[in-house]
C-alpha cells in the first residue's frame, strides 16, 4: 500500500501514522519528495488489516491511500510518481544533466588509471569507473588487483575530483569497497544475489544494479526492490545487454529498457554500451541511441591501449576515441533536452 501524507504536517502527526502502520503489521518505508512525503507499507494484505482506513483515522495527516498491485512496490512509479534523483558528491544523477561514467574495465596500475582518469575528465566525464575485483568466466583469467586497485581508484579520485564507481563481488568486501567508492556496482552475475544486494544497500551508498544476463525486466525491478526495502533510496538500474541467440555482438543491448524503466520506475536508468555490444566500433552509435531514448547516464569502458588490456580489450575505446565520442554526443544531448 502507498500512503501519501499531506504537506506541512507535524513530525508528531507523521509518527502517529507510522506507529499505526506498524501496529497493523506492516513495515513502513518513508520516501520524502520536494512537495510530498510518501510511505510505502510492506506486508501481506491478505493476512493484515486494511490500511485504507488510515485516511479516515488521520484526516489531518493522510491525503490518500492507494493499493499497489505490482510485485515491485518501492521502485514503482505508483510509489513515487516523480522521477528520483541521486546525489553523488556534487553531482545529481537523474536530473537534466546527462552523466558519463568512464574508465578501464580493470584497474591495471597507477599510470594506466591516472592517464585514463585525466583524459576522461578532460573530455567531460563526471565519474571514473574501474574494476578492482573482476568477475571472470574462467578462474585462470585476471581477477583484479583487489584492495590495491581500490586504493588506486581513491588516488585518482583525489587527484582529479572525479567520483568513483566500482563493482562489489562479495559480502566479505562490503565495508572495504564502500570505503573507497562513491557508487557501488552490482554486476550482471550478481544481480539476483539478494544477500549481497541487502549488504550493499545497508552501506547507504548509491547502488548501480546491472541487469542479469538472462533477466526479465520484472525480475530486475524486483531485485532493485531489495535495495529500497533496506532503507536505501539511492538506486540506479543499468542495462548492459542480455544473452540471446545472436553472436555478432557480445550481448544484445536492449535499449527498450530505457522507456520501460522510465514508465515502470522512478529510479534513474544507465546504459552500458561497452558490455552491451562488446565491440568498440559500435559504442558511439549505441551511446547516441541511449541518449536519444532518454537514458540518465552512460557507463563506458576506456583504455589507453585496448590491444594490451588485461580484460575485455575489444570493447574498450581509446582515449582519443572517447573524446570524439563525447563530441559526437553533443547534438543528441541537446535534442533530448539534456545538458
Q: What's the structural blueprint in terms of helices and strands?
A:
Layout: E1 2-5, H1 11-23, E2 27-32, E3 37-42, H2 54-57, E4 62-66, E5 86-88, E6 91-93, E7 99-103, H3 110-123, E8 127-129, H4 147-160, E9 163-167, H5 174-180, E10 183-186, H6 194-201, E11 207-210, H7 217-228, E12 235-239, H8 257-264, E13 269-271, H9 273-277, H10 280-293, E14 297-301, H11 319-335
Parallel strand pairs: 7-8, 7-14, 8-9, 9-10, 10-11, 11-12, 12-13, 13-14
Antiparallel strand pairs: 1-3, 1-4, 2-3, 5-6
Helix pairs in contact: 3-4, 3-11, 6-7, 10-11
Strand numbers in spatial order across the main sheet: 7-8-9-10-11-12-13-14
Q: First CA to last CA: what distance?
A: 36 Å
Count every beta strand, where a strand is a DSSP E run of 2 or more residues. Answer: 14
| Low-confidence residue ranges | none
Quick one: overall form? elongated
Estimated helix fraction: 25-40%
- Main β sheet profile: 8 strands, parallel, barrel
Structural account:
With 339 residues, this protein is an alpha/beta fold. It has two domains: 2-66, Phospho-2-dehydro-3-deoxyheptonate aldolase, domain 1 (Alpha-Beta Plaits, 2-Layer Sandwich); 86-335, Aldolase class I (TIM Barrel, Alpha-Beta Barrel), CATH 3.20.20. The protein has helices at 11-23, 54-57, 110-123, 147-160, 174-180, 194-201, 217-228, 257-264, 273-277, 280-293, 319-335; strands at residues 2-5, 27-32, 37-42, 62-66, 86-88, 91-93, 99-103, 127-129, 163-167, 183-186, 207-210, 235-239, 269-271, 297-301. Helix 6 runs parallel beside helix 7 (217-228). The radius of gyration is 21 Å and the shape is elongated.
Amino acid at each position: 500500500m502507498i500512503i501519501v501524507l499531506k504537506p506541512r504536517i507535524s513530525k508528531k502527526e507523521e509518527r502517529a501514522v507510522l506507529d499505526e502502520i506498524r501496529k497493523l503489521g506492516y513495515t513502513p518505508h518513508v520516501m520524502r519528495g520536494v512537495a510530498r512525503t510518501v510511505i510505502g507499507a510492506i506486508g501481506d494484505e491478505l493476512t493484515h488489516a486494511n490500511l485504507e482506513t488510515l485516511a479516515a483515522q488521520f484526516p489531518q495527516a493522510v491525503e490518500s491511500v492507494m493499493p499497489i498491485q505490482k510485485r515491485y512496490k518501492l521502485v514503482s512509479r505508483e510509489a513515487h510518481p516523480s522521477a528520483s534523483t541521486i546525489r553523488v558528491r556534487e553531482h545529481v544523477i537523474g536530473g537534466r544533466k546527462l552523466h558519463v561514467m568512464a574508465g578501464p574495465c580493470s584497474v591495471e596500475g597507477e599510470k594506466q588509471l591516472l592517464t585514463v582518469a585525466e583524459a576522461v575528465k578532460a573530455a567531460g566525464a563526471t565519474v571514473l569507473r574501474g574494476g578492482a575485483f573482476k568477475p571472470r568466466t574462467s578462474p585462470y583469467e585476471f581477477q583484479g588487483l583487489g584492495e590495491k586497485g581500490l586504493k588506486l581508484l581513491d588516488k585518482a579520485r583525489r587527484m582529479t575530483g572525479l567520483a568513483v564507481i566500482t563493482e562489489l563481488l562479495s559480502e566479505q568486501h562490503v565495508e572495504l569497497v564502500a570505503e573507497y567508492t562513491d557508487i557501488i556496482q552490482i554486476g550482471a552475475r550478481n544481480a539476483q544475489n539478494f544477500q549481497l544486494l541487502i549488504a550493499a544497500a545497508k552501506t547507504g551508498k548509491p547502488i548501480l544494479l546491472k541487469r542479469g544476463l538472462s533477466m526479465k525486466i520484472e525480475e530486475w525491478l524486483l531485485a532493485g526492490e531489495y535495495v529500497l526495502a533496506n532503507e536505501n533510496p539511492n538506486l540506479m538500474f543499468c542495462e548492459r545487454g542480455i544473452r540471446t541467440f545472436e553472436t555478432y555482438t557480445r550481448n544484445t543491448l536492449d535499449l527498450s529498457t530505457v522507456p520501460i524503466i522510465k514508465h515502470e520506475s522512478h529510479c534513474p536508468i544507465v546504459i552500458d554500451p561497452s558490455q552491451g555490444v562488446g565491440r568498440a566500433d559500435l559504442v558511439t552509435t549505441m551511446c547516441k541511441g541511449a541518449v536519444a531514448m532518454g537514458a540518465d547516464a552512460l557507463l563506458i569502458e576506456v583504455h589507453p591501449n585496448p590491444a594490451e588490456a588485461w580484460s575485455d580489450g575489444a570493447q574498450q575505446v581509446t582515449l582519443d576515441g572517447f573524446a570524439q565520442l563525447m563530441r559526437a554526443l553533443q547534438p543528441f544531448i541537446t535534442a533530448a533536452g539534456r545538458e
